[in-house]
Specification:
By secondary structure, the protein is an all-beta fold. The chain has a domain at 528-605: Immunoglobulin-like, CATH 2.60.40.3080. Strand 8 (102-108) and strand 9 (115-120) form a beta hairpin. The longest helix has 6 residues, at 2-7. 46% of the residues are buried. Mean pLDDT is 91; it is low at 1-9 and 522-532.
Length: 606
C-alpha cells in the first residue's frame, strides 16, 4: 500500500467527462491488484434488476481500520457499511462474493470468534454474522461460489476438522444465507485456491447448477484432484484421481494434479488443466461425471531429459462460439506457443493462427497470446508479434483479435510504437465498449497500465485517463449496470466512469448483470406463469412465443421489469419470434389479450 498511500497526497487529476471519484478523501481502498475475480480483497457488484445494484469493496481510514464499504453509484451513497470490529482494528473482510442481491464474506468481529461467515445487503442492520462454525476459534471461510438460485458453497474449519488428522482442514459447506440453512455437506479437505493459481478469473467455477472445486479426501489419499458438488451430500463426489503418481509409499497416497484454469463452457462443461504422470500438464474437460472427465489432447508429446512428461498446459482460457480458446503449444510442433482452440475432441484441438512468424530452427517463435474476452464478435488478446527489426511484421507485444480462423486473426493496433510492449490486460465489456489497461510507451522499470477503451473491434484504442506521472496501474475493472468501476495504485480510490458510445443500442449493448444457470441453447427457464381469464396457453421455446388458443387474439404486449412496454403487436398472429425482435437478455412479462380476456407469463430471454 505504500505507493497508494503516498499517492493520496497528490493533486486530484483532471478527469474526463463522465468520470468521478466516489470514495472520500482520507479513505484508502485495499483492493488487491491481481486479475482474479475471487481474490481476497476485491470489488464486487451485487443486486438485481428489481432492487438495483451496489458495489462492495474494502477500504480503510484512521478511525475504523479496514472495513466493508458500499456504493450505490453516487458520492453521497458511498460509505462504510459497518464497523464490524469496533474501533481502528481491521475486521479483515475477505473474499467478498455476490449472493444474489447481497454479498457473503469472511470477517473478524472480535478476537474470541475469529474469522467467520458474514452476509450484507449494504446496510448496517443487514450486515451480520450468519453463524459461528468453529467454537474454538475462527472458521476462516473461503472459496465462496453460488451453486444455484438460493445457495452458495464454501469451505470452512469447524471443531471436528480442526482435530481430525495431523493438521486442520477446510471442509465443504452449503448455505442459503441463514444459520439454519448452513450445514457441512462433505468432510473432504478442500484446497483453495490450490496448488496452481495462474487462473486470472476464479479458482472454483459453477457450471449450470454444479460447482467444480479442488480437494483431497480427509485422509489425504489423492493430494489434490477434481471434485464437483450440486450443494447436496449425495451430489458431492470426487470425479477421478488424475495424477496416480505414488507420493507416499507407506499409505499409497497419490500426488496432486495441479489443477488450474477452471473455465465454464456454456454451462455445459468445465475446461481445466491438470497434471498426470503419463502426460504432464495438459488440457482436460469434465461434464461432472467420472466417465465424462478426460484429457482432451497431449499437446506436448514425449519426455524431457529427466524422464518427465513435456506437458505445458493451457493459459488464459476463454469460450467463444462452439470452442474453448487458450494459449497452448502448437500440436504440429512448429509454431511454438500460440492461439489454440478445442471442441473437446482430439481432432478438434488445433492451432488457430501463428501470431509470431519470426523463424526459428524448428519453425517460428512464440506468440504467447494472453486472452481478454469476447467483444464485437471476436476474441481479443495481447500477443507477441516479434521484436526483430529485420521483419516488418514485428511490432512487439500488441493487441490482436481473432474470429477463430487464421485469416481472421489480425493485429488490432500498434499501441506502443516500434517493438515496445503495450502490456494490455484485464479486458471487460461495458455498455458496448471494451476497456482494458495498457500502455502507449515503454516506461523504465515498471508498467504504466493506464485505462484504454475501444468502441468497436477496429477502433484505435483511446486513452480514457492518465491519473498521474508514472505508473497508474489501473486495475480491478468491474461493470455496475452499464458503468465502469475501477481503482488504481497511484490513487487507491474508487472511480466510476459513465460513458455510452455513439450509436449505443440498448437492444444489443445493454449489459446482462445476473447469473445464468441454464445451458446455452437449452431453452429458457420459465420463472412464473400467471393465468388470466383468457383461454390461452403461452409457450416459449427460447426462439419464439406460441399462443395456443381457440379465441381471437386481439393484442400481444411485452413489458420489461420496470413495466415499460417494449413491444406491442396487434396482427392477430399466434406466433411471435423473440430472437429476431431485437429483445436483449433479461426478464420480460408477456401479456396476450384475446376476445375472452388476458393471460400473462414471465419469460427469460437469453
Amino acid at each position: 500500500m505504500t505507493a497508494g498511500v503516498t499517492a493520496m497526497a497528490q493533486t486530484t487529476p483532471v478527469l474526463p467527462e463522465g468520470m468521478e471519484i466516489l470514495t472520500p478523501e482520507g479513505v484508502t481502498m485495499t483492493t488487491g491488484d491481481t486479475r482474479t475475480f475471487d481474490m481476497a480483497k476485491n470489488i464486487v457488484v451485487a443486486g438485481s434488476k428489481e432492487k438495483g445494484y451496489k458495489t462492495y469493496f474494502t477500504a480503510q481510514d484512521a478511525a475504523c481500520g479496514e472495513e466493508l464499504w458500499v456504493t450505490d453509484g453516487t458520492a453521497a451513497g458511498t460509505k462504510m457499511v459497518k464497523d464490524i470490529y469496533p474501533g481502528p482494528v481491521s475486521s479483515n473482510v475477505s473474499y467478498i462474493t455476490r449472493f444474489n442481491d447481497k454479498v457473503v464474506f469472511a470477517a473478524t468481529a472480535n478476537e474470541e470468534d475469529g474469522s467467520e461467515l458474514w452476509i450484507s445487503d449494504g446496510t448496517e442492520s443487514g450486515t451480520y454474522m450468519i453463524v459461528d462454525l468453529n467454537i474454538l476459534g475462527g472458521s476462516e471461510p473461503q472459496g465462496f461460489c453460488q451453486v444455484n438460485e438460493n445457495q452458495f458453497i464454501f469451505s470452512a474449519i469447524d471443531l471436528e476438522s480442526t482435530v481430525y488428522g495431523e493438521s486442520e482442514q477446510h471442509w465443504l459447506y452449503v448455505s442459503d444465507g441463514t444459520e439454519e440453512g448452513t450445514r457441512m455437506i462433505m468432510d473432504c479437505d478442500v484446497k483453495y485456491p490450490g496448488m496452481s493459481v495462474n487462473n486470472d478469473r476464479t479458482h472454483f467455477v459453477r457450471v449450470g447448477r454444479k460447482v467444480f472445486f479442488k480437494a483431497d479426501s480427509k485422509d489425504g489419499e489423492y493430494g489434490e484432484t477434481l471434485w464437483v458438488t450440486d450443494g447436496t451430500t449425495e451430489g458431492t463426489i470426487m470425479l477421478t484421481d488424475i495424477n496416480t503418481t505414488v507420493a507416499n509409499d507407506a499409505t499409497g497416497a497419490t500426488a496432486g494434479a495441479k489443477l488450474d484454469w477452471f473455465t465454464n463452457f456454456k454451462n455445459q462443461k468445465l475446461f481445466f488443466t491438470a497434471y498426470s504422470a503419463e502426460y504432464g500438464q495438459e488440457p482436460w474437460v469434465s461434464d461432472g461425471t467420472p466417465e465424462g472427465t478426460y484429457m482432451i489432447r497431449d499437446l506436448t508429446e514425449g519426455f524431457d531429459d529427466n524422464g518427465l512428461p513435456r506437458g505445458a498446459g493451457a493459459f488464459t482460457t476463454c469460450a467463444m462460439g462452439d470452442y474453448m480458446y487458450f494459449r497452448g503449444n502448437d500440436p504440429g510442433n512448429t509454431a511454438g506457443i500460440e492461439l489454440i482452440r478445442t471442441d473437446f475432441t482430439y481432432e478438434g484441438t488445433t492451432l488457430v493462427a501463428d501470431l509470431n512468424k519470426v523463424p526459428t530452427a524448428t519453425g517460428t517463435n512464440n506468440g504467447t497470446p494472453d486472452i481478454f474476452c469476447v467483444y464485437d464478435g471476436v476474441l481479443f488478446m495481447k500477443a507477441q508479434s516479434g521484436v526483430n527489426a529485420a521483419y516488418d511484421f514485428c511490432k512487439g507485444l500488441e493487441l490482436f483479435y481473432s474470429d477463430g480462423t487464421a485469416e481472421g486473426t489480425v493485429m488490432q493496433s500498434d499501441l506502443n510504437p516500434g517493438t515496445g510492449p503495450n502490456a494490455a490486460w484485464e479486458g471487460i465489456v461495458v455498455s458496448g465498449s471494451m476497456y482494458f489497461r495498457a500502455q502507449d510507451e515503454t516506461p523504465s522499470g515498471s508498467q504504466f497500465w493506464e485505462l484504454f477503451r475501444i468502441d468497436n473491434k477496429d477502433q484505435f484504442p483511446v486513452k480514457v485517463v492518465d491519473l498521474g506521472a508514472g505508473p497508474d496501474f489501473v486495475h480491478t475493472l468491474r461493470n455496475m449496470n452499464g458503468d465502469l468501476y475501477f481503482t488504481s495504485q497511484i490513487i487507491p480510490r474508487l472511480f466510476k466512469y459513465s460513458y455510452r458510445k455513439d450509436g449505443y443500442d440498448p437492444a444489443k449493448d445493454l449489459d446482462e448483470m445476473d447469473p445464468v444457470y441454464e445451458e446455452e441453447g437449452a431453452g429458457v427457464n420459465i420463472v412464473e406463469s400467471v393465468a388470466g381469464d383468457a383461454d390461452v396457453e403461452i409457450v416459449y421455446n427460447g426462439s419464439y412465443l406460441q399462443f395456443v388458443t381457440s379465441a381471437e387474439i386481439l393484442n400481444v404486449a411485452v413489458y420489461d421489469i420496470a413495466g415499460r412496454a417494449v413491444m406491442n403487436v396487434s396482427n392477430g398472429e399466434n406466433t411471435l419470434h423473440v430472437k429476431s425482435s431485437g429483445l436483449g437478455n433479461g426478464l420480460y412479462i408477456v401479456k396476450v389479450t384475446t376476445e375472452n380476456g388476458t393471460a400473462a407469463k414471465q419469460i427469460v430471454v437469453k
